[in-house]
User: What shape does this take?
Amino acid sequence: MLASDTFDLGGLRLSPGEARRLELVVALDPLELGGQHYAAEPDRVPVKLDVSRMTGGGYALHLRFAAAIAGPCMRCLADAAPAIEVDAREVDLPGSGEELASPYVDGELLDLRAFARDAFALALPDQIVCTEDCPGLCPVCAKPLRALEPGHRHESAPDPRWAKLAELKLD
Assistant: This one.
C-alpha cells in the first residue's frame, strides 16, 4: 500500500467510463471537538479509494476506511475510543458549477489527507462516549455515576430566598 497525502489522478490515465480501485495509506489529523482533543487510531489508516473517470472529464471518488476516535467521553470524561466506519463519495466535474466541484481536487491532484479528515469528521457520532449507556457525571459532586452506589444523592441546598430567615433568633 502506498502512503500518500496527495494523489495524482492524472497519473492513472483513465479513459471516460474507466475506474480503478486503489489501496493507500493516509494520515488522519487530530480533531478538536467541544474544546477537547481527539486523535484517530491508528493515525495512519489504510484506505480504499475508487476513482472513476467521468464522460465530462471529471472524476467520481469513493473513499472507505475504518478508524477509532480516541479521547475523553463527552459524558463522564473517561477514555473513549469508538470505532468509526467511513464511506464517503465526492464528484469533481470541472465547468459544471459549484455543486459538482470538489474542494479536494485541484486540476488532476487529489488532496487525499483533507478528503479523509473531513469524511472522518462527518462520520463521527453526535457524542463520543465510552459506552452507549454511559450515565455521565453526578451534577453535584462530579463523580462518575457508574462508580457510585445506586442510591447516591446529596442534601439539597436551601433556597437562597429564605437565607435571611436563618438569621432570626427565636427564644
The chain has one domain: 2-136.
